[in-house]
Amino acid sequence: MFRRLFLLILLLASRASAAGEPSSLGSKLVFDPPIPTAGEPVAIAVSGTSPVACYAPDLGAQVIANVIRLDLDGFNCPSDPPAPTPTPFSATVRLGPLAAGTYRVQLFVAGKLESTVTLQVRHRLETRPAGFPALPRLGLLALVLVLALVGAKLLQ
Description:
Strand order of the largest sheet: 3-4-6-7
Structural class: alpha+beta
Helix content: 10-25%
Number of strands: 7
CATH topology: Immunoglobulin-like
Strand content: 35-45%
Radius of gyration: 29 Å
Shape: rod-shaped
Number of helices: 2
């Protein structure tokens, strides 16, 4: 009974969230690294406050094209749960390396869309320290000879 009531509250809150009102979980998404580079793994942490203490978050993720779908579930309330107690929760999912581009990250709670945010993945830039140009010994010898001749000409 309590579990059904809790799910109904969450579903109604999720619909209100889609309309621009705050969600019941007050969920927050944090990316690690905050601005990832193409080819490096990305972790996404979801945190918020559950209205009951018997919430054990289970977070799953799917990457399809440029959409990352996060599914948050884990309503493990016994048949006779304790009184509603706001309880903080957090869950993290690790994604493999992502290609450069803009991703739409969608958070679903109990199957309903709660929020959508954007994640920008930068292109990988290879940076190498600038080296000094090198001349072969014969080229260096020719350069010294030319500079000596030019110097001698100027001194005359």
